[in-house]
Write a structure and sequence with these properties.
The chain is an alpha/beta fold. The protein is built from 12 helices and 13 strands. The C terminus is likely disordered. Bound molecules: coenzyme A. The site of coenzyme A (COA) has 18 residues, from α2, α6 and α7.
Amino acid sequence: MTNAAITGWGACMPPAVLTNADLSTFLDTNDEWITSRTGMSERRISHVSAQELGAVSAARAIACAGLDVQDVDLIMYGGCSNEEVVPNSASGVQLLLGATKAASVDINTACTSFLYGLASASAMIQSGMSKVAVVVGVELISRYMDWSNRNVAVLFGDGAAAVVLQASDEPGGVIGTSLGCDAEARDTLRVRGMGAGYTGFGVTYGDMIWDFDGPNIFKRAVRGMAEASDKVMREAGVTADDIDLCIPHQANLRILESVAKHAGIPMEKVIVTVQKYGNMSAATVPVALVEALEQGRVKPGSLMLMPGFGGGLTYCSLLVRWGQRVTPLGTSDRELRPATKTALEMVNEIRSKQDPHGRSREGLMAPVFSDSKVGAA
Ligand SMILES: CC(C)(COP(=O)(O)OP(=O)(O)OC[C@H]1O[C@@H](n2cnc3c(N)ncnc32)[C@H](O)[C@@H]1OP(=O)(O)O)[C@@H](O)C(=O)NCCC(=O)NCCS
C-alpha cells in the first residue's frame, strides 16, 4: 500500500508580540486572569496576509523535504482566515510559491482545518490522486477579531506552518484518523459578519461580532477530543503507553491537561505552545509539530497523537507514525518583509477601523440566521 510520509516541515511566525499587558491597555482584563484561565502570556500579530504567512511556511517545508516547488501537485490551505472567498486562498499561496503544477484547495473546519487537511491529503496520496502534497495550517485572526470583546480577544493569535506529504512505500505517515462533528453545538462559536449570509444586508465586512460560549465549548472540546483519541488508538491497536508525543490543538492549557489526563498521557509527552502563541486555530498543531522537531523531541519512528477541535464544533484525533528522518534536507531563503509597527500599534489600527461609528451590537445578525435555522427541514 502507498503511504503518505511527512518529509518536510516549516513554520512562519509573524515577529510582532502582543502581551497580556498590551491587551489590558484597551480591555478590562489582566495578566493574572488570562494566564490562570488559559495559560497564555503572549501571542503574535501579523503584518502580512495569511497567504504570505502560508506561502513562506510552505516554501520552508518544501526546502526541508529537499524538493522543488514544481514537484508539488497539491496545495491544501487549512484555515478559516481567507482574505477572499473567490478566488480561494490556496491559489494565492500557489501563486506566491510559483508552484504552477499544483491543484489548490481550501479546507475550512475552523481550528481543525490543518488536521482535516492532513487526513484528506494523506488519503489522496494513498489513493494515488496526489504524489507530493503541501498542507498548510494558517490563521490571521487579528483581522477579524472583535477587539472590544475580552471574552475572545485575549485568546487568539496569528501564525502558520506547513508540512510536505510524499507517496512512500515505507510504513508510516497518518496511520489512523477519527473525525467528527458535534453540530448541535454549532451556535456556541460563530463569527457574525463573515460570509455570504451577511452580504448585501448593510454589514460591513470586517465589522465582526463573535458569539462564543467558552465554558460550553470547553466541555464539548474535551469530550470530542477524548472520544476521538480513544477511538483512533483503539482502532490502531495502540495504548497510551505507546504514544511518544501528543501534539494537540492549543486552545487552552487546561483543555490540554484534561485531554492528556483522559487519554492517560503524561504532560511531559505533550507539546505545549499556548503560552507564547495563544490559540492560532488551524496553525496550532503544525506550529507545535515544527517546534517539536526543532527541539529534537521527535525521534525516528515516533508515534504521535494529534487531537483537535474547532467551530462547528468539529473534532478529531489523528495518529501519525514518523519516518526515519528528523532533520531537514534543505533550507529556504524565503523571509517575511520586516514589520514596521508593534503588535499593539497594529491592533489599535484595526480597532480604529473596526468601530468607527459606534456600531449597534444587536443589529448584526444575518437574515438567513434570524429567520430560520440554517439547514432545518
Ligand atoms: C474562554 C475561557 C478561557 C473562559 O474561562 P472560564 O474559566 O470558563 O471563565 P468564565 O467564562 O466562567 O468567565 C469567568 C468570568 O471571567 C470574566 N472574563 C471573561 N473574559 C475575561 C477576561 N479576558 N479578563 C477578565 N475577565 C474575563 C467573565 O466575564 C466571567 O465573569 P462573571 O463571572 O462576572 O460573569 C474557557 O471557557 C475556554 O477556554 N473555553 C474554550 C473556548 C475555546 O478555546 N474556544 C476556541 C475554539 S477552537
